[in-house]
Amino acid sequence: MINTSVTEKQVIEMINRDLLSKYRVLDGRPIYRVVFSGDQYETRKGKFTDWYGHIMIREVTAVRTVPKYWYIKPDCWVLERLTFFAGVQALKEISEELVEARNGSYETLLPFRDGEGNPLPCNQRIVDLVIWKLHNPTKVLPSDIEAARVAEEQEETKYFEGEIGKDERPELFIWDNSAFVSTRQLAFKQEYVEKSSKPLTGLE
Fold first, then answer.
1. Which residues lie closer than 8 Å to 12 by C-beta, 6 or more apart?
2. Which residues lie below 8 Å from residue 124, measured CB to CB, with a gap of 6+?
3. pLDDT tens digits, residue range 36-78?
4. Half-sphere exposure of residue 107: CA atoms within 13 angstroms, side-chain side
5. Is 184 helix (H, G, I), strand (E, B) or coil?
């Protein structure tokens, strides 16, 4: 585990106390909590490969306690939520891998790190904002759905108009019996007729 400052730990303890007082299940566990990724382990059933240096010793299916956030490097603070699995089949499938998940499992909501994977400090304001958004999702009105549908249809129309335009013949091919008639040819044809109707002078 990467050493964290005493002040930072005190901030996390304060955040977790606040989360416990506001959100908890009947058995007293907090629904939300902030943990340090490097401190978290879970019991998993799976296929493991044992190594001695660069030499592979064996592959074995077993139940072992392993780092939960092995994929988060460097370690950072993580906001988690207690998740329960709906349905007997879903619970059975999850429990076969996560042996201790029958009573719920803490799953990641937000790792505190930037776009490059560098750890970021955890603070109360961000935690409160994330949880508030979870409890107050943006309401989608029927008018919003209709507007999105119309916008999507307009984009599709523009796309197909562009694709059709790729196969049009040049504007010089303006005759009605052309195999391909450009959607822009009417204007050119009208201009051509008007110019041709003028009296000719000189050699006729």
1. 34, 36, 77, 122
2. 11, 14, 15, 18
3. 999 999 888 778 888 888 899 889 888 888 899 999 999 999 9
4. 10
5. coil
Per-residue pLDDT tens over the stretch 93-128: 565 666 566 678 899 999 999 999 999 999 999 999
Instruction: List CB contacts of 10: < 8 A, sequence separation 6 or more.
Output: none
Residue 81 CA to residue 104 CA, distance in Å, equals 10
Between CA 110 and CA 34 the distance in angstroms is 9
User: Rounded to two decimals, what is the model's pTM?
Assistant: 0.60
Q: Please give the angle made by the CA atoms of 101, 104 and 106, to the nearest 5 degrees.
A: 95
Give me 37's structure tokens.
Answer: 């990724």
Phi, psi dihedral angles at 187 (to 5 degrees)? -65, -40
Alpha helices, H only, the chain: 6-22, 88-97, 124-135, 142-165, 185-196
Residue ranges covered by each domain of the chain: 6-135, 142-196
The number of beta carbons lying within 10 Å of the beta carbon of residue 181 is: 16
CA distance 83 to 184: 60
